[in-house]
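TASK: fixed-backbone design
INPUT:
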């Protein structure tokens, strides 16, 4: 169970049954009864119209504004910024239930990894403020960072010795196998000892949304040929860089009211935060991922992109724009003068100027338009063609018809073209995107859109049934008739897997087993009455039909490709005939 450790399930169930969710949440939010639910202003984001709903019968809450949901445990975890064990202890105390404290010690594999990370944070931090860390500390101070900022972000120093951290952690009786799982220590095959990954580097601990350390970034202190300027923790059970935003744990509250400033590096985050811009985060890579954008959307839809003005930074901005457009984020782009990055710009005392840049920042469309016409010689025919080629895919993705029409008008005016020509080119671009070669996932996505989201609705109806039905026998039949692989939506897959893995197929148990994203989805689904009374047997048939159709379409695509190249298609035809026979 997520974060539960070794707390007995009967204890968790006792706590869950003893706490009235309406009473608990009412200590943070004013709730008013509306039918069988209670409604109020969301405690997790700023809103004027109540969109936060609590259902006492099911013991769940959901905000339709920021899409956060869950039960009593997840509410306390998010509101107080604590882990499951601490939330359980607080709720147990509230209900007068005793919990064996020993149950929390070394409670699970992940809990041990969190402990090791905590110990490493303290180790590195103490060294920064010791005699050994003087050179690192002087460098950070020259970059304008104060003692308060360094302590706030728990910045540290890794010494040059090969096994200092390793010896420190082993002395605390952590097993070498677990230490190596964190990525902090590397052990080569056949060797009994490991060596420290981070050596002679400034260390930036990376925290998750709940302020738990999950990874580290290390900046080289003394430039050495062949050594990377920055290295990061590898992928571990705790750290996945595509799902992490550096600084989010400190920025999330101010993001609710101010939006979020996104920069590239650790130093940028520290410098902006110190300069009064608390709502700053950094992506752990060159461009956004879907997971990172969903993380941000829990708190805000207003975003400023501040990437370095070199070609890599521009490429990252362009790539990020594509994803941000898909998620309907309100995005503006800031280009700093003189090729400076945010840290260097603010080091020169430009806080007031930076605040003005935020106010005057260009919107998505303006920045993309200006970038295209600035980088191509639009006085020539070939330059106009290139500029139009750069702009067309962007215009196609715009969801707002007014914004799209305005960009078409501006493009026509600057390039000296008739709007009719641009509209015709847009139609051709749309057709190209629909009929171009696509991967399996893209093929499935296009098919689903053409089917009016039919498969998504079928998948949700099945998950809604599993979440809300009291008919255990029918649930068992559903779980035995399909597999999680037959679901296209990854969140539906996770919910389905949890129900298959758990012996007790209750909503309350499921909500505690799900990751936060899936929990938010599940709570949202439960409040949607439109899935009530669906024909589950019919939904299962449709789900299998959708999966089969996608397989057939992919085989058809491969057949067409091989025929075009003059290749043999016997095996593909056999597969196709076998599948059509099954239909």
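OUTPUT:
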């Amino acid at each position: 169970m997520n974060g539960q450790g070794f707390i007995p399930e009967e204890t968790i169930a006792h706590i869950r049954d003893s706490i009235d969710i309406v009473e608990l949440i009412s200590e943070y939010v004013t709730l008013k009864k509306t039918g069988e639910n209670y409604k109020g202003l969301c405690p997790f984001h700023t809103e004027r119209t109540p969109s936060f709903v609590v259902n006492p019968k099911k013991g769940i809450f959901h905000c339709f504004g920021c899409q956060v949901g869950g039960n009593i445990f997840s509410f306390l975890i998010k509101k107080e910024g604590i882990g499951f064990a601490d939330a359980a202890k607080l709720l147990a105390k509230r209900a007068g239930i005793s919990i064996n404290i020993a149950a929390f010690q070394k409670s699970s594999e992940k809990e041990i990894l969190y402990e090791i990370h905590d110990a490493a944070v303290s180790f590195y931090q103490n060294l920064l403020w010791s005699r050994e860390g003087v050179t690192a500390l002087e460098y950070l101070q020259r970059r304008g960072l104060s003692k308060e900022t360094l302590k706030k972000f728990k910045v540290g120093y890794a010494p040059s010795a090969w096994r200092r951290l390793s010896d420190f952690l082993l002395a605390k009786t952590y097993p070498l196998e677990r230490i190596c799982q964190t990525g902090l220590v590397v052990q080569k095959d056949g060797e009994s000892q490991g060596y420290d990954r981070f050596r002679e580097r400034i260390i930036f601990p990376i925290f998750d949304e709940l302020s738990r350390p999950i990874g580290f970034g290390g900046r080289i202190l003394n430039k050495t040929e062949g050594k990377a300027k920055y290295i990061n923790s590898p992928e571990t059970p705790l750290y996945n860089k595509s799902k992490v935003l550096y600084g989010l744990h400190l920025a999330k509250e101010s993001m609710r009211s101010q939006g979020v400033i996104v920069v590239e590096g650790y130093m940028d985050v520290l410098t902006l935060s110190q300069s009064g811009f608390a709502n700053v985060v950094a992506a752990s890579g060159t461009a956004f991922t879907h997971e990172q954008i969903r993380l941000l959307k829990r708190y805000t839809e207003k975003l400023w992109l501040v990437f370095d003005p070199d070609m890599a930074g521009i490429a990252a901005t362009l790539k990020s724009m594509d994803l941000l457009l898909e998620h309907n984020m309100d995005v503006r782009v800031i280009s700093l003068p003189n090729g400076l990055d945010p840290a260097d710009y603010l080091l020169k005392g430009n806080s007031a100027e930076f605040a003005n840049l935020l106010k005057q920042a260009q919107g998505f469309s303006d920045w993309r338009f200006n970038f295209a016409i600035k980088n191509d010689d639009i006085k020539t025919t070939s330059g106009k063609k290139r500029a139009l080629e750069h702009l067309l895919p962007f215009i196609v993705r715009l969801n707002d018809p007014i914004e799209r029409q305005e960009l078409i008008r501006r493009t026509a005016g600057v390039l000296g073209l008739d709007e009719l020509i641009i509209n015709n080119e847009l139609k051709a671009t749309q057709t190209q995107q629909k009929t171009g070669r696509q991967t399996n996932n893209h093929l499935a996505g296009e098919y689903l859109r053409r089917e009016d989201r039919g498969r998504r609705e079928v998948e949700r109806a099945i998950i809604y049934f599993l979440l809300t039905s009291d008919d255990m026998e029918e649930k068992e039949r559903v779980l035995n008739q399909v597999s999680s692989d037959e679901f296209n939506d990854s969140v539906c897959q996770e919910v389905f897997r949890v129900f298959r893995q758990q012996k007790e197929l209750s909503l309350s148990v499921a909500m505690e087993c799900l990751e936060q994203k899936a929990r938010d989805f599940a709570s949202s689904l439960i409040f949607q009455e439109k899935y009530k009374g669906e024909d589950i047997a019919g939904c299962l048939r449709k789900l299998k039909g959708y999966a089969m159709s996608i397989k057939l379409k992919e085989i058809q695509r491969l057949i067409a490709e091989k025929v075009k190249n003059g290749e043999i298609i016997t095996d593909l035809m056999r597969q196709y005939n076998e599948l059509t026979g099954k239909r």
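COMMENT: Residues 220 and 294 are 32 Å apart (CA to CA).
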